[in-house]
């Protein structure tokens, strides 16, 4: 059966009080509309069209980024959901089979629920099927009005409802399947005879019932799936619900999550079994965590790949690659292009940017590595700095394998250090170091004897020095 998906995304989302269109607000890795499109993807629709209106340019640009196959139709004035679908149908032209209509702001909808709804609709040969849910608080939503036999007789908006209808707890989720031909005919008959003076998509159900065409209700097992998002408070509730769902799925697939309430994993992230997530962990975007890795506490990973058995503690990483058995943190910052080879170490107060570290290479303490290639089994001493930026250009540092750089070495790029070389503490290295050499690049130490006694007479330091001198002469 031919399937077409229409996503309604023209509304204003006034209560979000935002410069960003409501549909574009992020929720654990995808925009609201991105979640809806993801849920619809397994339907295998031949065509997907989004109706845009408010801030259409922004919404269209976003859609072309996340779903280039989705076309758009412009609803210049938001005259209601029925009007929006009519515009979509006109833009789509020739149409048969099933038309699935989705509100753009129901991000918790599961692909399986939508699939079940569409299959039930198609196998029953219904004219229209609506996703319904029983909710404790139906305020603001359309109610499903049933006839004496339990069949759907109409959908009524709260503002148009009688007090008895308002008491109904079965609501319209704003997710539907229609027979294309029946929908086209019914949309032509919609009026604006309601409290908002809008064309209501929901009115087609009553039209179908009146003409004797079969309509159905498909109930969502989990009412949370049908929750819409109207303001930031609802956005936060949806986020918490989605967090719980993602965490539950992960735990069921063999991931240990110590504190699910403080573990925020985007829908786009993969975590393999036997990974362990400690409290206060955020995994975002295209992040993946391999088996046996231990992440946290207090870690944020964005678009970062973590290898097997790696350990990451109190760290922030963006577009980084953390190899297998690597140890990161506590207190490390990996920036884009940081690539840490197998069994490497990035320790405390270390920042790494656009640099690859070979297998077993360690950067344990207080160091900035920027724009560098470092070989295998090299040890970068405490407090090293890679001076990669001249103020106008960035240059690269290349350090070989089995190199040992001593504390407080500064590399002034571009510079190359050969395999097995050493540097002396406090060296500023601005010339290449051949393999196996010790580079010493610091001023020689000179002690000016008696300086404190002469220049700071009577000070505590001078007195301490005098006592020490006396003790030495008495010993001698
Ligand atoms: C609609 C349903 C209501 C249901 C609720 C579920 C109608 C008349 N009512 O309510 O029964 O319980 O959804 O959330 O359909 N939109 C457009 N163009 C418009 C109007 C809306 O594209 O002219 C889009 C919005 O961007 C949104 C969706 O349609 O994605 C629903 O609009 P919204 O105003 O949130 O829903 P209601 O009309 O209040
Ligand atoms: Ca409305």
From TrEMBL:
Its cofactor is Mg(2+). Keywords: Acyltransferase, Cell shape, Cell wall biogenesis/degradation, Cytoplasm, Magnesium, Metal-binding, Multifunctional enzyme, Nucleotidyltransferase, Peptidoglycan synthesis, Repeat, Transferase. Acetyl-CoA binds at residues 382, 388-389, 425, 442. Mg(2+) binds at residues 105, 230. Its main location: cytoplasm. Residues 233-253 are annotated as: Linker. UDP-N-acetyl-alpha-D-glucosamine binds at residues 8-11, 22, 75, 80-81, 142, 157, 172, 230, 335, 353, 368, 379. GO terms for biological process: cell morphogenesis; cell wall organization; lipid A biosynthetic process; peptidoglycan biosynthetic process; regulation of cell shape; UDP-N-acetylglucosamine biosynthetic process. The keyword Lyase does not apply. Catalyzes the last two sequential reactions in the de novo biosynthetic pathway for UDP-N-acetylglucosamine (UDP-GlcNAc). The C-terminal domain catalyzes the transfer of acetyl group from acetyl coenzyme A to glucosamine-1-phosphate (GlcN-1-P) to produce N-acetylglucosamine-1-phosphate (GlcNAc-1-P), which is converted into UDP-GlcNAc by the transfer of uridine 5-monophosphate (from uridine 5-triphosphate), a reaction catalyzed by the N-terminal domain. HAMAP family: GlmU (MF_01631). This is Bifunctional protein GlmU. The lineage of its organism: Bacteria, Bacillati, Actinomycetota, Actinomycetes, Micromonosporales.
């Amino acid at each position: 059966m031919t399937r077409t998906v229409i996503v309604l995304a023209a509304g204003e989302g006034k209560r979000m009080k935002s410069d960003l269109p409501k549909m574009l607000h992020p929720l654990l890795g995808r925009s609201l509309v991105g979640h809806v499109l993801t849920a619809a993807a397994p339907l295998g629709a031949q065509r997907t069209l989004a109706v845009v209106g408010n801030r259409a340019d922004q919404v269209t640009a976003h859609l072309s980024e996340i779903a280039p196959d989705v076309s758009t139709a412009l609803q210049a004035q938001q005259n209601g959901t029925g009007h929006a679908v009519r515009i979509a149908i006109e833009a789509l032209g020739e149409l048969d089979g099933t038309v699935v209509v989705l509100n753009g702001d129901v991000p918790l909808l599961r692909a399986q629920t939508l699939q079940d709804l569409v299959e039930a609709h198609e196998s029953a040969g219904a004219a229209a099927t609506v996703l319904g849910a029983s909710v404790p608080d139906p305020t603001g939503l359309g109610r499903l009005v049933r006839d004496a036999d339990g069949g759907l007789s109409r959908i009524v908006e709260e503002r148009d409802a009688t007090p008895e209808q308002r008491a109904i707890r079965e609501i319209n989720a704003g997710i539907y399947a229609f027979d294309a031909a029946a929908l086209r005919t019914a949309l032509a008959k919609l009026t604006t005879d309601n409290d908002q003076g809008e064309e209501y998509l929901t009115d087609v159900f009553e039209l179908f019932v009146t003409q004797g065409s079969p309509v159905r209700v498909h109930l969502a097992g989990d009412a949370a799936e049908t929750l819409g998002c109207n303001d930031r408070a609802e956005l936060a509730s949806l986020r918490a619900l989605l967090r719980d769902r993602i965490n539950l799925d992960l735990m069921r697939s063999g991931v240990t999550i110590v504190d699910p309430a403080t573990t925020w994993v985007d829908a786009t992230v993969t975590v393999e079994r036997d990974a362990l997530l400690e409290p206060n962990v955020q995994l975002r975007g295209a992040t993946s965590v391999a088996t046996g890795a231990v992440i946290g506490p207090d870690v944020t990973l964005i678009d970062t790949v973590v290898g097997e058995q790696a350990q990451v503690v109190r760290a922030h990483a963006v577009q980084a690659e953390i190899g297998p058995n690597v140890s990161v943190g506590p207190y490390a910052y990996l920036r884009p292009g940081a690539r840490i080879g197998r069994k490497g170490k990035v320790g405390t107060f270390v920042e790494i940017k656009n640099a690859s570290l070979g297998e077993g290479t360690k950067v344990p303490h207080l160091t900035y590595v920027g724009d560098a290639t470092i070989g295998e089994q090299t040890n970068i001493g405490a407090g090293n700095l890679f001076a990669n930026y001249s103020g106008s250009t960035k240059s690269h540092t290349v350090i070989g394998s089995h190199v040992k750089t001593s504390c407080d070495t500064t590399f002034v790029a571009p510079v190359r250090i050969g395999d097995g070389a050493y540097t002396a503490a406090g060296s500023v290295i601005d010339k290449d170091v051949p393999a196996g050499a010790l580079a010493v690049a610091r001023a020689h130490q000179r002690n000016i004897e008696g300086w404190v006694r002469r220049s700071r007479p009577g000070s505590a330091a001078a007195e301490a020095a005098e006592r020490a001198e006396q003790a030495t002469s008495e010993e001698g």
